[in-house]
Write a structure and sequence with these properties.
This protein is of the alpha+beta class. The protein has 18 helices and 24 strands. The strands form eight sheets. A seven-stranded mixed β-sheet has the order 18-19-17-16-22-23-24, with helices on both faces. The protein has a five-stranded mixed β-sheet with strand order 3-2-1-5-15, with helices on both faces. InterPro entries: ATPase_NBD, Carb_kinase_FGGY, Carb_kinase_FGGY_CS, FGGY_C, FGGY_Carb_Kinase, FGGY_N, Xylulokinase.
Length: 507
């Protein structure tokens, strides 16, 4: 039996999963590491901690599964996007990585607009100037740590540091590179114009590969560290959401997935590059060669329901503990007893500001229409519907751009709720399926590894063979029609309140 190793480098830990060639997970291990917050709003991690976690995970899964290193035919990497790893001439990390969620770079994002032009930046990189993307972080180091920046010889993304430690090769791939804001997304290469205007030397950036391409092989030291066989190929891999797309079978135009975790992500595949000139959603290169993706991110999806649980549902938490069930199950039962539209109560899920389709750090959460008749059950229903409206608004932008969404897969903790999945199906107007086994980015990374090793002919064939869908919930035409006036009002509320959000932030 041949095996594939999928490594998913996350923010809280690295999940390493060993799959056999049928897609069965033979063993899994997660190793955690700390986040450093030296100042308010900063978020950093030590790249050395990531590598230690990968070494621990690789050894653990080989041991748990009783698999020989020689039977592992390829390694795939997935990881958190947008981080900034800087190496000196000896390949040593110059400083901790500045993470995707770091908030120090607002001024640098504004500077990018001035240097490149706000609209030109969207035309070239397919996205508006974003404080969370890598380019703004590079400008911050240029401005605040110039001596350190002068010593930099290589700029890498988090998972690509792991590649370097495993193989000695400096490389990246298209899906992760798309999130740097330095890439010409339409042409799948670094943008010479953006680099010149931001005064970033192109020699600092790694060569860019397609996600299933072999980018290096495990060298002797890494083999000793990880227990893997020297010479095992390592493929390009993918950014976390791009790997998750492959791991959920979203590899063809018309397919998409919705993740309802702390944040909410909608990710759709397209055969052509399509850029929103208003910058409401992100366009990136897909991890499937020759395809692109439209991706949105709602910052407080599952977070909204968790906030409501902690603030208002102590009784349900206690009863759930006594019954041995998840409190969200009881909250879902409460919401199911409330009619569609929550008796004219709407919720805007902007607890953390918003990213898509309203890139606005000042907007905040709103209950609209609250009256004395409303109960906690109404609040739960309104929160679930508000999050579903936010996903539907993003899908509306996708379709406006010509990106088809015909079949949706739901994943993440929120997708375990049949009620929430039905809301999505009714609002999207398309079936919403689940997966028999949801291994997410780790499976996607392993699928890409299998393609690179020649186990499968291409990504679509591999996904068809390894991803196992479960049942799908069909849209209800009557519910879809009933939601439309609420959905229209939901969208209008942000426009009506936008200036008030700004005024509130200035108080």
């Amino acid at each position: 039996m041949r095996y594939l190793l999928g490594v998913d480098l996350g923010t809280s830990g690295t999940k390493t999963v060993l799959f056999d060639e049928t897609g069965r997970a033979a063993a899994s291990h997660t190793a955690e590491y700390p986040m450093l917050q030296p100042q308010n709003g900063w978020a950093e991690q030590r790249p050395e901690d990531w590598y230690a976690a990968v070494c621990e995970g690789a050894r653990a899964v080989l041991c748990k599964a009783g698999v020989r290193a020689a039977d592992v035919v390829s390694v795939g990497l997935s990881g958190q996007m947008h981080g900034l790893v800087m190496l000196d001439e000896r390949g040593q990390a110059l400083r901790p990585c500045i993470l995707w969620c770091d908030q120090r770079t607002g001024a640098q994002a504004e500077r990018m607009k001035a240097l490149v032009g706000a609209q030109r930046l969207i035309e070239l990189t397919a996205n508006p100037a974003m404080a969370g993307f890598t380019a703004a972080k590079i400008l911050w180091v240029q401005e605040h740590e110039p001596a350190l920046y002068a010593r930099c010889r290589h700029i890498l993304l988090p998972k690509d540091y792991i590649r370097y430690r495993l193989t000695g090769e400096i490389a990246t791939e298209v899906s992760d590179a798309s999130g740097t804001q330095l890439m010409d997304v339409a042409h799948r290469c670094w943008s010479r114009e953006v680099l010149e205007r931001l005064s970033i030397d192109a020699a600092l950036l790694p060569p860019v590969y397609e996600s299933p391409e072999v980018t290096g092989r495990v060298h002797a030291q890494a083999a000793q560290d990880t227990g893997l066989m020297q010479g095992t190929p390592v493929v390009g891999g993918a950014a976390d959401n791009s790997a998750a797309a492959v791991g959920t079978g979203v590899v063809r135009a018309g397919t998409a997935f919705t993740t309802l975790g702390t944040s909410g992500v909608v990710y759709a595949i397209s055969d052509d590059v399509s850029i929103d000139p208003q910058g409401r959603i992100h366009t990136l290169c897909a991890s499937v060669p020759g395809k692109w993706t439209a991706m949105s991110c709602t910052l407080a999806a599952g977070l909204s329901l968790r906030w409501l649980r902690d603030a208002c549902c102590e009784g349900e938490v206690q009863r759930a503990a006594q019954a041995g069930v998840d409190p969200y199950v009881l909250m879902g039962d409460m919401a199911a007893g409330v009619p569609l539209g929550a008796d004219r109560l709407l919720y805007l899920p902007y607890l953390m500001g918003e990213r898509c389709p309203h890139p606005d750090p000042d907007c905040r959460g709103v209950f609209f229409g609250l009256s004395a008749m409303h109960t906690r059950a109404h609040l739960v229903r309104a929160v679930m519907e508000g999050v579903a409206y936010s996903q539907a608004e993003c899908v509306e932008v996708f379709r406006e751009m010509g990106v088809p969404v015909e079949r949706m897969t739901a994943c993440g903790g929120g997708a375990r709720s049949p009620l929430w999945r039905q809301m999505l199906a009714d609002l999207y107007g398309c079936p919403v399926a689940t997966l028999a086994v949801d291994e997410g980015p780790a499976l996607g990374a392993a699928i890409l590894a299998g393609v690179g090793a020649g186990v499968y002919a291409d990504v679509a064939e591999a996904a068809d063979a390894l991803v196992r869908p479960a049942g799908a919930q069909q849209p209800d035409a009557a519910a879809h029609a009933a939601y439309q006036p609420y959905f229209a009002l939901y969208k209008r509320l942000y426009r009506d309140l936008r200036e008030d959000f700004t005024a509130l932030a200035r108080l």
